[in-house]
UniProtKB/TrEMBL annotation, chain B:
Belongs to the CcmB/CycW/HelB family. The keyword Nucleotide-binding does not apply. The chain crosses the membrane at residues 21-39, 45-70, 82-106, 126-152, 159-180, 192-215. The gene is ccmB. Its main location: membrane. It comes from Marinomonas pontica. It is found in: Cell inner membrane. This is Heme exporter protein B. It comes from the Bacteria. Keywords: Cell inner membrane, Cell membrane, Cytochrome c-type biogenesis, Membrane, Transmembrane, Transmembrane helix, Transport.
């Protein structure tokens, strides 16, 4: 899987990974993030070989996979504070309002719909200060408004010299993302 | 995510899943209560057997909990987030185990006085029983976590966990029950307690690392 793939990622760009189902898009993100280990090849971050110890990269990393990493028994605010304990109350309010979750701040995640859960998971993009975002199907289950909001957030991040690597089957033309694709 | 926010979240989730702990404690009470009813309610039988009965019931209750200790984290993607958090995975594992141990063993300790009275455990041996539980159960959690992490991705992993970890539980049970029996007979029991402490410390040194490796392999 992903044999022969070589990608150089530069700060300040959004990269969309394309490929048919089973091509290894999610696996590629997992390997970069450190969830999986590569069978072959190397990963370098800021000139440093991080293939065997991903911690230098993980300091700057925000990874959202298919499983969102949300605990059903936490409330929406508790979830955000779990990942970003230093978030200010006013920032939390602003982000929840932007994402349409303000009325659910004290609601347990298990009571939310799939799209709302996706919004809760994505809320980390607004509160955590990480340069490298690895997002696996971030637009899945989102409604039109949320898609626009996420596109805007990605653009903001990229313009602030952030780097976004994402997979999606949806057309997100407004992002003007560089595309990386390969066949299985 | 920080170590502190992780710890607080684990306490919070455990509190909201208190029915799981309640089930384990209820199971413990039921098993202990069935012995006098099912075998012999005479003090001559129950008093010498009380340590063994209480310990076997406690081990079974802990087994109920330990099998699923990482299941929810695996399902909701939290284990992936542990791996990419940049935090030290063995320490995250250890923090989770501390929370789980406190959440399960403390309620068991609270019902011990009543149940030990029911089984005619001499009052002089009660504190030895408490000491065996405090010193011995950490190793049960630490050993159990390795099995739970290895089988977290399996749908029907409960039996496999038991087969994997029960052989390692036996020495703990033997030393714990021996300590209680020795105290009942007026024999020295500190050696047994020291062995329990040693096993817990050895597990503490080895288990978080092995569990972390197992977690990584299972998520892979």
């Amino acid at each position: 899987m992903c044999a022969g793939l070589s990608v150089q990622l530069v700060a300040g760009e959004a990269i969309r990974i394309l490929g048919v189902n089973g091509a290894g898009k999610s696996s590629l993100l997992k390997v970069i993030a450190g969830v999986m280990s590569p069978l072959k090849g190397e990963i370098h971050y800021l000139g440093q070989d991080v293939t065997h110890d991903r911690r230098p990269l993980q300091q700057d990393l925000l990874y959202l996979g298919h499983s969102l990493g949300i605990k059903n028994l936490l409330t929406v605010s508790e979830h955000i504070r779990h990942y970003c304990p230093s978030v200010l109350p006013e920032t939390l309010q602003t982000v929840l309002t932007q994402l349409g979750l303000i009325d659910y701040a004290d609601t347990q995640v298990k009571a939310l719909s799939a799209g709302q859960k996706q919004r809760v998971a994505l809320s980390r993009l607004w509160v955590e200060n990480k340069a490298l975002w690895l997002l696996d199907e971030p637009f899945a289950t989102l409604d039109v408004n949320a898609v626009a909001l996420l596109e805007l957030r990605i653009k903001q991040h990229v313009s602030a010299d952030g780097l976004v690597l994402f997979t999606t089957h949806q057309e997100v033309l407004s992002l003007n993302a560089r595309e990386v694709s390969w066949l299985v | 995510m920080t170590y502190f926010s992780f710890l607080m979240t684990e306490f919070c989730v455990l509190w909201r899943r208190k029915h799981d702990v309640f089930n384990a404690v209820l199971f413990f009470i039921i098993v202990v209560s069935l012995f006098p009813l099912g075998i012999d309610p005479a003090p001559e039988f129950l008093a010498p057997a009380s340590g063994g009965i209480l310990w076997c019931a406690a081990v079974l209750s802990i087994l109920m909990v330990i099998e699923g200790i990482f299941k929810e984290d695996y399902r909701d993607g939290s284990l992936e987030q542990w791996l990419v958090s940049g935090l030290y995975l063995p320490l995250l594992v250890l923090l989770k185990l501390i929370v789980q141990w406190a959440g399960v063993v403390m309620p068991l300790l609270m019902v011990m006085p009543l149940l030990s009275q029911m089984l005619y455990l001499p009052s002089g041996s009660f504190w030895v029983l408490i000491m065996t539980v405090v010193l011995g159960t950490p190793s049960l959690f630490l050993i159990g976590a390795i099995g739970a992490a290895l089988t977290v991705s399996l749908r029907q992993g409960a039996m496999l966990v038991m087969l994997l970890i029960l052989p390692f539980y036996l020495p703990v049970i033997i030393f714990a029950v021996s300590a209680i029996r020795a105290s009942q007979e007026g024999a020295p029991y500190f050696g047994f307690l020291a062995m329990l402490l040693a096993m817990s410390l050895l597990s503490l040194v080895i288990s978080p690392f092995m569990t972390a490796v197992a977690v990584k392999a299972s998520v892979n």
